[in-house]
Design brief:
Number of helices: 9
Low-confidence stretches: 43-57
Number of domains: 2
Distance between the termini: 32 Å
Order of helices and strands: HEEHHHHHHEEHH
Helix content: over 70%
């Protein structure tokens, strides 16, 4: 039987590293913003420099974004990333090299919003990791028991031993059912960051396991394990009937 829980755990660790790096980059970006003196009446672009992600950036605000956030997300051009992160309006204004006070405030506000979203994602990733750990602990203990029990043919077991096997398998199925219920509840929850941003766990799971052979590694693993226990119970019952 193949499980995907371990592979999913590895994906979470990589995502944690990415999100943490991005959150820290926003912290540096925010510090840079506060060091920039606002100017009024701007219409032209500031100094033009090459963007780290392959685009062209103008002005101190855009340069600060390029050297902090864009550097932590080097897979996208600076201007494309800026629009995705802070919005088209802010991206257009920064592209013109603006450093007016309203623009500085807008960039700070959008940066705080993104940082809150990243904090919410970090917390959601922690919750997902805990859910996987609980599942993995139960799944591995059941698998180890099944492997050990499989070493002794059922034909060599007595009636009481077979009945004990059957009861143990029933307990395993109850464990799987409880974890399936917990998992469904987990997917229905939303993790927030101090009420400022929220992330639905179902959306996080869809993002995390994109490209996996299955969409829900935990649910599929538990269902398959329950099916295996059911099949084993059926075999045990067949032998029990022969003993009657």
């Amino acid at each position: 039987m193949t499980t995907y829980v371990g592979r999913a755990s590895g994906r979470i660790e990589r995502e944690r590293e990415t999100v943490e790096a991005k959150r820290r980059a926003y912290g540096r970006f925010r510090s840079r913003i506060r060091s920039i003196q606002p100017r009024s009446g701007e219409t032209g672009a500031g100094e033009v420099v090459s963007g780290s992600a392959g685009g062209r950036v103008a002005g101190p605000l855009l340069e600060a974004f390029d050297e902090t956030v864009a550097s932590a997300c080097a897979d996208r051009p600076t201007m494309e990333l800026l629009a995705a992160e802070l919005g088209e309006g802010v991206a257009t204004a920064l592209g013109a090299g603006g450093t007016s006070l309203p623009l500085l405030r807008a960039v700070l506000s959008e940066s705080d919003r993104r940082r809150a979203e990243l904090v919410a994602m970090e917390r959601a990733l922690d919750a997902e990791a805990d859910s996987l750990a609980r599942t993995d602990e139960t799944v591995e203990s059941i698998r180890e028991w099944l492997i050990e029990a499989n070493e002794t043919p059922l034909s060599a077991s007595g009636f009481e031993e077979l009945r004990a096997y059957h009861e143990r398998l029933a307990e395993f199925r109850e464990d799987c059912a409880a974890l399936l219920s917990d998992r469904q509840e987990h997917l229905g929850r939303t993790t927030s960051a101090d009420g400022r941003a929220g992330l639905r766990h179902r959306d996080l799971v869809a993002h995390l396991y994109e490209g996996f052979p299955i969409d829900h590694p935990v649910l599929v693993t538990l269902v398959r394990l329950d099916e295996l226990c059911t099949e084993c119970q059926r075999s045990v019952r067949d032998h029990l009937v022969r003993r009657v």
